[in-house]
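2024-03-11 09:14:02 DEBUG pipeline.ingest accepted 1 chain
2024-03-11 09:14:02 DEBUG pipeline.ingest length=79
2024-03-11 09:14:03 DEBUG pipeline.predict start
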Amino acid sequence: MGYPTGAQPRSYRVLKFTATPSNVAQAVVGHRPPGIVGVYEVHQYADEKREALELWALAKITNPVPAPAKVVKLARRRR
């Protein structure tokens, strides 16, 4: 399983930015491994997910997304 370039969910991309292992990042966003591995992989990654989310929170606090510089009001649609 993979995503086309630029099509990964935002939370997964952010977790990868924090150097979270792929299997933990997938578990955080609720994905199971594909195929037979997903059937037998029952580890919940609770401690690893907690650490990944703490790293994500730290990244969000230290690198906040700037507010949009300009909000443009759109004209109403004509009928």
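2024-03-11 09:14:41 DEBUG pipeline.report Helices lie at 10-17, 22-28, 35-40, 46-62.
2024-03-11 09:14:41 DEBUG pipeline.predict end
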